[in-house]
Amino acid sequence: MALLQLSAHFSSSSCAFFGDDDVLSSTSKTLPLLRRNVKCRCIAEPVEMMQTVYKTKVSRNENMAKLQAGYLFPEIARRREVHMLKYPEAKVISLGIGDTTEPIPEVITSAMAERSYALSTVAGYSGYGAEQGEKNLRAAIAETYYGNLGIQETDIFVSDGAKCDISRLQILFGSNVMMAVQDPSYPAYVDSSVIMGQTGPFQKDVEKYGKIEYMKCTPENGFFPDLSTVSKTDIIFFCSPNNPTGSAATREQLVRLVQFARDNGSIIVYDSAYAMYISDDCPRSIFEIPGAKEVAIEISSFSKYAGFTGVRLGWTVIPKQLVFSDGFPVAKDFNRIVCTTFNGASNIAQAGGLECLSPQGLKAMHEVVGFYKENTDIVVDTFKSLGFKVYGGRNAPYAWVHFPGRSSWDVFEEILEKAHLVTTPGSGFGPAGEGFIRVSAFGHRENVLEASKRLKELYM
Amino acid sequence: MALLQLSAHFSSSSCAFFGDDDVLSSTSKTLPLLRRNVKCRCIAEPVEMMQTVYKTKVSRNENMAKLQAGYLFPEIARRREVHMLKYPEAKVISLGIGDTTEPIPEVITSAMAERSYALSTVAGYSGYGAEQGEKNLRAAIAETYYGNLGIQETDIFVSDGAKCDISRLQILFGSNVMMAVQDPSYPAYVDSSVIMGQTGPFQKDVEKYGKIEYMKCTPENGFFPDLSTVSKTDIIFFCSPNNPTGSAATREQLVRLVQFARDNGSIIVYDSAYAMYISDDCPRSIFEIPGAKEVAIEISSFSKYAGFTGVRLGWTVIPKQLVFSDGFPVAKDFNRIVCTTFNGASNIAQAGGLECLSPQGLKAMHEVVGFYKENTDIVVDTFKSLGFKVYGGRNAPYAWVHFPGRSSWDVFEEILEKAHLVTTPGSGFGPAGEGFIRVSAFGHRENVLEASKRLKELYM
Asked: How far apart are the CA of A264 and the nearest CA of chain B, in angstroms?
């Protein structure tokens, strides 16, 4: 079937391609207001001309059709742009996407610059690296974050970020697994599950996909799910310190989680991307918990520690002890996924990651984290002073602010419209996030202070 | 079921985790030679101790189990390592994996170093970039490679490399499509299809996966498939200049391919990662062919133009005119895939890519390509002088050398064993590659000359 439509994007040279082709003339029906059977006329300047609208016979992937609206953060970016068109003079401040704002410490960027320059030398040039990451970086990650936990260099897979590894893990698991997820949670867990065909359709009445177990995390249960009500699933995505609620699970809670996984034979995918924000004695890694190595994978990232959101560097830990029901090591299949669908993180980013884990790099990262934690205090204090119930913040760069009885998107729009501040609507993270907004503490100090001032004007 | 096995990887601190846990004692059977029911003893030094071998109840993804052996290139790397252990004194030269060897031109690395340093400044810092790539880079790619072909900036998706985008495209298509592929071809097309569950099991007798259409490319058909014998499929992966055969399709051949796709309603995924190696008038892009924008996606990469194999930067072009059978734009779904499973290429790599497309960067890339093309001439002349039939080479950095009647892996082993040269066995690219080896022309000049000398000694 061929339809006709206007196009203004053809120059004379591309037009020439259509010269003696029959593509343009096989027209069966037309769109409204468009002439039919108009031949291509090649002239010197781009011009509105007729072009076939042809449909392939390839069916759209039905899993893609299940996805609701846009992915959350691009949708927020879109609304922000609309707002900025409406108020071109407004100074919009983002406390939304969780994007880092502070410069990367020089010790780290210098290492990346040096690696860049070295790539212009015979001695310093390197081509394809190991898909799993450079050996010294894997070793440094194992030593720094898992030094006494029995995790080895070869258990570490360096990646271009936790979000990317979430999808690679979903490819690994395939379409026949069922997953559980904290509700609310970072949207990539659920969306990647939908894309891989693990789920049923979206059920509008409950705002959940079929065949996903949503583990409700609310103030009532201290943001840790009541495992006695959670159905057995193959995979359990669990993020601590949690994005978006900002809550970190305690050791005792994680012991229960690991036992729950062991009892059910499940695999936990533990997202520890905010572990360095923990102030108290909550575990930094799931592998601090006895027996976790046989039931857990951990994903993490340099993004929120060193401002690497744009540089792209993370890692995934898959202990050799973790095996499928047939005894096949999960790490072996993940290695195959990484070798086939990925080609390693950028060597320049890896040089930066290695420097992050040097003594001076670690010190610099702690300073970055400390700065954002001060921001978090400002945000938390602001909302508390206004009488809101605020959760999180202590062990994470996110405050989870309660607006009981209100729609998250309405609150999002209110704050954007009246204070020119971008937040994140809690319902974007799952149905249990309704009535909350997530306020990120990433931002320059003056912006956070200005945001605090505007919020006080709005809600005082 | 819990088994016991020796482990020497637990320090005292991790051992402590097992203190009052019942994990270790629930032993139902033991492995040979291992004592059972030995309790964990915590002492100061790492020690061999008993550790539960626990199996999850998660079934291994059956698609992963279909995959044969290792991915080709890691397997070659493994054999190379075995060889180097056997001959520690040998100077092994790789003409194997197709990895670039020459330093990246300074104009390009300087741009990356500057971007690195800038990330330490308030003005130059950037966090998350657009998942689709930076606007100026997308515009530069559209202008440089598709200037007069009607491809727009918004049709370009910047990525961390063509291999990664191949898998993202497979996720986009899902498990219910059937694909055709050149035989032989770059293994990532087939392997990613297997992983996504598009195929049947591997059929050992014909060395093909079920439900993949293998389009035979041999000297007899000039390495372009006889489309009259090719079954209709949803997707057609097509690489030109081809890896591994080194052949580039002519304009007339690509017109036939596009017409074939249009007749069948198929989508072509056109891999043009070697387009800059074309010396004659073969098309550099599928979009030079009339009607291609409605049936084709193009993937490409900076890897082989600027030595970016380790830096990681590529792109995919999905014209807005390409739609599924229900009229839904393919690019819209791909955008969702990119936003959900990826977070953009490294901003430092993107700064390099932008510089690649400046006048001086383009000049530098042409010099890099020219150097490798001289290498290719040396390789081709060497094998020709020895009486071999050599294909490819003219428009690609690969020579495809025929050893009629012999096993590719045997030839690979012979050349490795006797000349300490790593090549790539043709059968690793598909059954029609049997009897061939791919010889890559990436390498320092002295190594290519030395390889030529050794080959002459071996086969003279």
From this structure: 7
Name the residue in chain B with its Cα closest to that of A60. B324
* Residue ending a domain, choose from A343, A360, A377: A360
ipTM score for this prediction: 0.88
- Statement to judge: residues B2 and B111 lie in one domain: no
Residue of A94, A110, A156 lying closest to A364 (CA atoms)? A110
Return the axis-axis angle of helices B445-459 and B359-385, rounded to nearest 10°: 10
Residue A92, min C-alpha distance to chain B (Å):
17
Whether A192 sits inside 8 A of B163 (CB atoms) is: no
- Regarding whether A43 and A167 lie in a shared domain, the answer is no
What does the block give as tokens for B289? 């062919």
Whether residues B81 and B143 share a domain: the answer is no
pTM: 0.88
Smallest Cα–Cα separation from A290: which of B20, B268, B443, B231? B20
**Local structure of A172: helix, strand or coil:** helix
Indicate which CATH number applies to the domain containing B416. 3.90.1150.10
Cα–Cα distances in angstroms (integers) from residue B238 to residues A182, B182, B314, B451, in the given order: 42, 6, 17, 31
The boundaries of the domain holding residue B453 are 64-103+362-459
Q: Are residues A332 and A420 in the same domain?
A: no
> Inter-chain contact A195–B128, Cβ cutoff 8 Å?
no
What domain count does chain B have? 3
CB within 8 Å of chain B, chain A residues 112-171 = 112-114, 116-117, 119-122, 124-129, 131, 148-150, 152, 160-161, 163-164, 166-167, 171
A126 & A6 share domain: no
Residues from chain B contacting residue A338 (CB–CB below 8 Å): none
| Tens digits of pLDDT across chain B (460 residues) | 343 333 333 333 333 322 333 333 333 333 333 333 333 333 333 333 445 589 999 999 999 999 987 678 888 989 999 999 999 999 999 998 889 999 999 999 999 999 999 999 999 999 999 999 999 999 999 999 999 999 999 999 999 999 999 999 999 999 999 999 999 999 999 999 999 999 999 999 999 999 999 999 999 999 999 999 999 999 999 999 999 999 999 999 999 999 999 999 999 999 999 999 999 999 999 999 999 999 999 999 999 999 999 999 999 999 999 999 999 999 999 999 999 999 999 999 999 999 999 999 999 999 999 999 999 999 999 999 999 999 999 999 999 999 999 999 999 999 999 999 999 999 999 999 999 999 999 999 999 999 999 999 999 9
